[in-house]
Amino acid sequence: MKELVVISGKGGTGKTSIVAAFSSLAENKVIVDCDVDAADLHLILNPKIELKTEFYSGKSAQIKSEFCTKCKKCIELCKFGAISKDFIIDEIKCEGCGVCYNFCSYHAIKFETKQSGEWYESNTRFGKLIHAKLGAAEENSGKLVTAIRNHARLVASKNKNGLILVDGSPGIGCPVIASISGANQVVIVTEPTLSGIHDLERVYKLTQHFRVPACVCINKYDINFELSLQIEKLCQENKIELLGKVPYSNDFTNAQIKGLSITEYTDNEVTATIKTIWENIYSKLMERKNV
Amino acid sequence: MKIAVASGKGGTGKSTVSINLAYLLSKTYKDVCLLDCDVEEPNCHIFLNPCINKSEHVFMPVPEVNDSKCISCQKCAQICEFNALAFVKNFVIVFPELCHGCGGCRLICPAGAITETGREIGTVEAGIGYGFNFIYGKLRIGEAMSPPLIKAVKKEAENFKFQVLDCPPGTSCPVISSIDDADFVILVTEPTPFGLYDLKLAIEVVRKLNLPLGIVINKSGENDGLIENHALSEGIKVLTKIPDDRRIAECYSRGKIILRELPEYRKNFEPLIQITREILSDKLFGVQK
Fold first, then answer.
1. Helical spans, DSSP H, in chain B
2. Within this chain, do residues B159 and B249 fall inside the same structural domain, yes or no?
3. Phi first, then psi: what are they for A176, rounded to 5°?
4. At the N or C end, where does chain A have fewer CB atoms within 10 A?
């Protein structure tokens, strides 16, 4: 079984649209949406939920006012400023460390596991999709990512799927680290803007840090030819394989509005490029060892 | 006064709105500061080319165990909710990258074997670009937790009267740490199904924090109705629109400021200044929203 993760560093470079296209081209796979903060892939894949699982992670503290003597010890000990002067714990600021609970002399604090989201196993026209929804303003997105990646591996091995295709999240923090660690191959989707290049360099370093091989795909390469060339040079210098360059196209948005991947929506120069990119990355992936 | 610019979806134009808002504010007001709170992938400095006059490493407290004092009671490993301490072969091992810095282990240790030391999580830099102040954070690569660094960025800016915060994308801890004490939240979106869906998630977060908000439609065009209908049903004002103009995209790609390159778009940013004035007068007269 091989695991391919698509990330971008910078948001809005077209990661999800590319993954939707790959989903239509790949065979015998499980698809995973690891952008649990702001998942969008389901808007194209239109999943029918088969299995829904509540995700419990982290704890949160609550003061039982009937036992509270207002000694202020919890306020002094809390490093996160989560307890107000009138002894109410702000559930958003609370990190769930349990210091207040453990050191309250009057056992006046409740400390319980909380539900922070849910995840789903669904059927789509392209096969199984494992996706999730993190509750608004919740934490532990990294753990939720790990939970759905683990489930995807389980489903893939049960159904003898050879491939897990993962849509990652922007940035270089906790959910991204949870998405790429231990994967076979990463594809970084970038764009020819100074911000795009800056973020590409940072996220590429992250893939090196976690020793996951990375390839690059330039999206909207024709909005700035000069900077596209600069990305090509950067890839050459660092020996990163450039998979291909996708031109800017309104068809991405038009397909999205119809709830389709671009490869289903139209057949032109853009989709031909994406197909070549997919063939490139697929043959590369097959050279890697199984996860 | 703090105006946070956030979005849910990435790449909708948060930095564009933040930079141009700070730029325009600085034409009228003194004491304007732009904060780049997207410490995972900060970009504003690319547009400002700021003259940096302060650069500091930011540390997070993590435990250090003195093995000669340790009595192997394992209480530290038991109290840690984040599995940052483990007891292996009679020794306590610390995993600093998992530590949230709560201090529980140090407090519980009966032998006084635990002290706090610092672990670098990134840097905060401050400077000036195009006539206004600028502060940004850069997360160390491989570091998972950005909120402590975001807090350090905000702390550095606390004395500025007008603060514009460019926030990270998403809906979880990094966004919350950025917007939690804002006076107003501007949600930047684009008229696509992805833009709309992520806008709905962002609205949910801002509502949960009980903060006043408005919407900016970027890359505005024939599909604006998608966003406008939802804004109407939620009773949220669309503050302004920025058209889907290839020249703006090119300007962005080269790291240029729209208001300097394409001054005809000044009118598109004026409504945001108006909002700033309203918040300011509400604050002065103590109006509760």
1. 14-28, 44-48, 75-79, 104-108, 147-156, 173-179, 193-208, 225-234, 246-253, 258-261, 266-285
2. yes
3. -70, -45
4. C
Neighboring chain B residues of A97 at a CB cutoff of 8 Å: 81-82, 100, 102, 104
Q: Which residue of B176, B198, B255 is in closest CB contact with A194?
A: B255
A237, two tokens = 């210098």
Is residue A198 within 8 Å of residue A171, measured between CB atoms?
no
CATH number at residue B80: 3.30.70.20
Domain limits for position B200: 2-58+132-285
Domains (range + CATH), chain A: 2-46+125-287 (3.40.50.300), 58-115 (3.30.70.20)
* B168 interaction partners in chain A (CB closer than 8 Å): 171
B11, B82, B145 member nearest A13 (Cβ): B11
Minimum Cα–Cα distance from A193: chain B residue:
B253
pTM of the model: 0.94
Q: Kindly state whether residues B156 and B212 are assigned to the same domain.
A: yes
Residues B136 and B207 in one domain: yes
> Hey, are the CB atoms on B81 and A97 less than 8 Å from each other?
yes
Interface check B250 vs A, CB under 8 A: yes
Nearest CA in chain B to A222: B250
What is the distance between the alpha carbons of residues B202 and A29, in angstroms, rounded to a whole number? 31
- Answer whether residue B123 is part of any domain: no
pLDDT in tens, chain A (291 residues): 999 999 999 999 999 999 999 999 999 999 999 999 899 999 999 999 999 999 998 899 999 999 999 999 999 999 999 999 999 999 889 999 999 999 999 999 999 999 999 999 999 999 999 999 999 888 878 999 999 999 999 999 999 999 999 999 999 999 999 999 999 999 999 999 999 999 999 999 999 999 999 999 999 999 999 999 999 999 999 999 999 999 999 999 999 999 999 999 999 999 999 999 999 999 999 998 888
CB contact under 8 A, A98 and B142: no
Phi and psi dihedrals of B199, rounded to 5?
-65, -45
Same domain as B148, residue B107: no
